[in-house]
Amino acid sequence: MASWNSIPLEITYQVLGWLASFSWTLCFYPQLILNYTKKSVVGLNFDFVVLSLTKYSSYLVYNAALFFSPVIQRQYREKYGYGAMIPVAANDVAFSIHAVLITLVVAFQVFIYERGSQKLSKTCTAITSAVLVVAVVCIIISWPNNSWLWLISVFNTMQVFMTAIKYIPQAVMNFGRKNTEGWSIYHILLDLLGALTNFAQMGVQSIDQGTFVNFYGNIGKTLLSLEVVFFDLIFIFQHYVLYPSKRLENYSKAGAENTEPLMTSSGDSSQGENV
User: Fold this and answer.
1) Is 2 a member of any domain?
2) For residue 124, is it within any domain?
3) N or C, which end of the chain is more exposed by having fewer CB within 10 Å?
4) What's an example of a GO molecular-function annotation for this chain (predicted)?
5) What is the rounded CA–CA span in Å between residue 178 and residue 270?
6) How far, in Å, CA of 214 to CA of 149, rounded?
7) Dihedral sign for Cα atoms in the order 247, 196, 50, 130
């Protein structure tokens, strides 16, 4: 079984891992709180929520299976070498469980809060249905041959695919609305921090082991970080560069509405009645 060559690097690995999980755990709450405060999910794309739930469920299956199953761990080492370290840490499992649960809470908010005219798209429904069918078929195929490593690799591929597409509906929606109101930028900033520290964690492990096997041995985790960084930079660009004036304009209008009743005179009232 592989072991660490450097205690400082091992400690750094654990710190970075938990920092990534902590950032990714916290990133769910700004949107959750924003929805609760406004009692509205207008501005939050429903496809993003459903695709995220599908993604995190697939990610949970992969992480939990590889972390807890001795059989799958043995199959992993048979494929990548008996000196290879398992590329899933306890923080990965903890994050996956939390992500599924908190996304379910956000999905519940979609049902109970003001949502305007937005509905789940047919494309999203088709994608999630296809993912479910593929998962069932792959379980049936892998069962007779005990191809469990292959099976969880399929789930890992699913979560990479879902990560690549889940942000697209929200980004397109922001472009269409020409604002990011209702979409929490703090969610994105914490998400970005999590991706960067997650990637750094894998780098530390590579330095200690003198190999990049953990990058291609867990290609899902590698691509996950890169995809998240790419889309988060798009959202940051939308929020701070493309549509800051829209955001400030909305704040100004809100302030004007709050002060208007205090500024109304009797003359204005009579004029309003004539209109």
Assistant:
1) no
2) yes
3) C
4) L-cystine transmembrane transporter activity
5) 37
6) 15
7) positive
